[in-house]
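The protein record filed here:
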Amino acid sequence: MDSFVLELEKVLAPFFKLNYQIIKFMKKINKILLVVGISLALVAIIGIVIVSVKNKSSFEKDVFNATETVNTSDKNLSTKEDIGKEDVSMPTIVSTSLSPKDMYLEYKSEYEKMKISADYKPIVLKYGSLYAIKDYEQNQQQIRETPSNQVETIFLLGKKMNQSLSDITNVEQEIRGNRAILLVTSKTVNNYKGGIGMIRESGEWKIDHEVWLISNSYFDESGKPIVNLDFNWWFNDWPANRMPK
């Protein structure tokens, strides 16, 4: 199975690189080897997935005045803050008691229960940020133009390649203002490392983008290995045009 997954990754690699063209803020990746859960490939091909591949060279650094660091056992947050006018479908309201980590794990649990591609829409509306929902709606034309059998084939391959709950060995979270980063470790064949960006919208933590990288394969723009992909690295890599409003 591992060899099958690796071969499948090679075949789908071109699609992974297309992913953030859909949301129009990515450039080519500078010597960073990205292997994304097929959820990302689904966005690129049929536009039905929240998660996104990031490009370090296209991100702008920003500084936050207030920084709050929490461990996975910290108290849950319930502060309600308006993120601005919503011009897309209203997401389903989830329990206000969930932390970013718990919200993400709940999303993963529901994601794995999907049977067909149409099952993804309610999950996007429930767990996705307003940016992610808008991306989903803008990409519906791609779905309509793709033969249904191809859509379902890609969907099923995507589910098989995505990191499952049983693959996840550790989740750490850090909150800065209305943004949160989850650092996720996986036990799969390539030892994937995940960075999940979440936004607090009206008191609820929503998933904005999800990135998986192959362990020990990170390089900066000069070609030097990046030793520590810590919270600061991920926060600085946050897409400038996807900040909380």
